UniProtKB/TrEMBL annotation:
The lineage of its organism: Bacteria, Pseudomonadati, Bacteroidota, Chitinophagia, Chitinophagales. NCBIfam families: dnaq (TIGR00573). It holds the Pfam family RNase_T. The keyword DNA damage applies. DNA polymerase III is a complex, multichain enzyme responsible for most of the replicative synthesis in bacteria. The epsilon subunit contain the editing function and is a proofreading 3'-5' exonuclease. This is Excinuclease cho.
Length: 459
């Protein structure tokens, strides 16, 4: 038995909106056996644009029953039947949410006439109820009223039943079928083809644009988790409606998936990703030679396509590190921009500046100490490789950190010997780094086995 449903509401998501009208047609696969329809007082004003769309006004529902008054009857009509609607998850989310608020649980199989029509009658220009009915010459009276739309959905369902020569509808109802919970515009083939492997997945909208990027230890399980449950929030309902296709990239390890996800979020800036989209405030030490031939060591914000000799997250930490270098390598605070006034050099007073700012020390001598300071920074940031599983048994994955900076990652034949960064770089794909990736790799290196280049394996 089937319960073919249509509802009218005050808005697009159940958690903050009410139902204004319900129509339910109980159908045995041949004919309608029972019909229920009623206006419902939503307990809140109906927005003007909704009144204009449906024709249901505040005055019309003023004397109508509240949902709790009809909840028992609605539950009785739905609880033992297959729930059918056009874009079923919308109607189901509202009734599930409001029945639950009245103490009734609704757990039934669902069928979506949008999804059924796409399979049984492919190639139509549109699958909205109005355009679909016009294409199939199905009468549609009282558009955007529950009884009118539900009656048209009944006729559509009967047409689909009669045309289902390939038995798509029974397949949709089988245990394990994904049809009842997938978004209305997503073909199940996109989910079925996902492997149970680590990787990154991309949700695309109708135009093919990426609207969400996610990482997964198990791609199939993670993607399916997006579509389960009955969250009726506006953002989730909009999110699901905008998923039309899925693509993916398998990675050898979950760590690589985390890195690739971060890179792709910052590259594509998908509309539904919220995390990792805040502006970063990373800083770095940069060097340049001034017009007098002295090497300057300065702190600046880390910008795209720039390569600092040392990077850090907090400005105060960088300034503290720079002051240490001034003392340890006898550098000038003026040439390092820690002193920017025209007063006498504080470093000369304290004994660690040898007069470079006053041209009392040759540039060549001063520059040697600047280079030594830079070398000390690089030595404190070792180069290492994180090796892991590949995408198949013949390869291994490799992630390269060089002097504290993320260089890139890729896959090598399993028997490849790794000796130095230069050799490894030829085999890897370089990627942009960011604060999240650097911190992720540092944390991983602290708790896992890594190959420190030049020093062997470190646990």
């Amino acid at each position: 038995m089937y319960a073919i449903v249509d509802i009218e509401t005050t808005g697009g998501h159940a958690s903050a909106n009410g139902i204004t009208e319900i129509a339910i047609f109980v159908h045995d696969g041949h004919q309608v056996l029972e019909q229920f329809e009623t206006l419902v007082n939503p307990g809140r004003p109906i927005p003007y644009y909704i009144q204009s769309l449906t024709g249901i006004t505040n005055e019309m529902v003023e004397e109508a029953p509240f949902f709790e008054d009809v909840a028992y009857r609605v539950h009785e009509l739905l609880r033992n039947n297959i729930f059918i609607a056009h874009n079923v998850n919308f109607d189901y989310s509202f009734l599930h949410h409001h029945l639950q608020g009245c103490g009734y649980e609704l757990q039934v199989k669902k069928l979506c006439t949008v999804r059924m029509a796409r399979k049984i009658i492919p190639g139509l220009p549109s699958y909205s109820l109005g355009k679909l009915c016009r294409s199939l010459d199905i009468p549609l009276h009282d558009r955007h009223r529950a009884a009118g739309d539900a009656e048209a959905t009944v006729r559509l369902f009967e047409r689909l039943l009669a045309s289902d020569s390939q038995q798509h509808i029974p397949a949709m109802l089988k245990r394990g079928s994904k049809e009842h919970f997938l978004p209305p515009n997503l073909a199940p083939e996109y989910v079925v083809q996902l492997p149970s492997r680590p990787g990154v997945y991309y949700f695309h909208n109708e135009k093919g644009k990426v609207v969400y990027v996610g990482k997964a230890k198990d791609l199939r399980k993670r993607v399916n988790s997006h579509f389960t449950g009955n969250n009726s929030g506006a953002k989730r309902q909009e999110f699901l409606r905008n998923i039309h296709s899925i693509s993916h990239e398998v990675t050898g390890t979950e760590l690589m998936a985390c890195i690739l996800e971060s890179i792709e979020i910052k590259r594509l800036w998908p509309i539904y990703n919220q995390s990792q989209k805040r502006p970063e405030q990373r800083f770095g030490f940069y060097t340049f030679e001034d017009q007098h031939g002295y090497l300057r060591l300065a702190i600046d914000k880390k910008r795209k396509y720039t390569h600092p000799v040392y990077a850090f997250d907090i400005l105060a930490a960088g300034q503290q590190q720079l002051r240490r270098l001034l003392r340890d390598f006898q550098l000038c605070p003026k040439l390092c921009f820690l002193q920017t006034d025209n007063d006498a050099c504080v470093g000369m007073d304290e004994g660690h500046c040898l007069g470079a700012c006053e041209k009392q020390e040759p540039a060549e001598t001063y520059n040697q100490r600047v280079l030594a300071a830079i070398d000390s920074l690089k030595a404190s940031q070792p180069s290492f490789v994180i090796l892991g599983a590949g995408r198949n048994i013949a390869e291994q994955s490799a992630i390269l950190m060089e002097s504290g900076r993320f260089y890139g990652m890729g896959y090598l034949p399993k028997d490849t010997g790794i000796t130095d960064p230069a050799t490894l770089k030829d085999l890897l794909t370089p990627y942009p780094e960011n604060e999240y990736i650097i911190n992720l790799l540092k944390q991983h290196a602290e708790h896992s086995e890594i190959l420190v280049l030049g020093h062997g394996v470190k646990s």
